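Practice record 12: protein with FE2/S2 (inorganic) cluster.
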Amino acid sequence: MVPMDEDKYPPETDRRRFVKGVVGGSSMAAITTAGAAAVNSSTTDVGKGGGSVTYRAIRNTDGPAPRGLPQIPLETDEDGYLKGVWPEAETRTLEDGTEITVAETEIAGVTYSSRWFQYCGVQTYRNIQPDSDHDNYLRYEPATTYDWQRQAVEGGEKVHPEDFVPYEDWTNHIGDPGYGKPADCNWRSHADSVPAEESLAVQVIRSPLIEEAAKEDEWIAASTVKGCLAFMNKCTHFCCIPGFKDSGDAPKFGAANKSYCGCHQSVYDPFDIVEKTYIALPRPDE
Ligand code: FES
């Protein structure tokens, strides 16, 4: 049985809000619809480091996707370039004596871990292994649908909040101004050792709505930079790449100012951050 998705609300309400504390019961749907093996313990015959994990997501508001997209907390280097936080890896011993490696830290009272990203096959990627060493810079994806990105920056360049200026009233032919300016990026995917199929797709949006929310919310203040929000851009339904204002079909599905997955019309709201729980898939090679 696929549980009710309490994460959704009717798209016509179009609420722009930031909500915390919603723990969904729909997480198992992510596993079953993705066709992967459901796992409910932290140790299995085929790997380790899976199991129930609570994370911060941009809310899934419509369509078949079972839950939201995981946020990537941001920090900067001394020159202001954006980096995704990657916690220091450490070894832990489970109750049965098994040792596992975890990358986990506390940010504004939230336990953030690399397990937030262990779905849709990403759990097998080398760059998502807790002790995998990368510089953690967000970089622009060479292939992008955004005209501004093609014109202003090169693929592979590091991402800087100033690149998005002006962003407050930016829009393209989709949706309304005032929601923010998006870019297609990747993360922990720059090294030669990372094959193209293991590139981690990330959406970055610099938005005045995020800046406002950061004044009120401790987590958003700690996990965003100058109105820049980042999240892993892999649909929790069948793992396609959604997009914010990158599809002319989005308005037909109430997603003109949201993130829209054209594969099966799932909609995500980047301006509604929620807490969710799901079953992270185990890493097979540990
Ligand atoms: S809605 Fe099916 S993959 Fe995104």
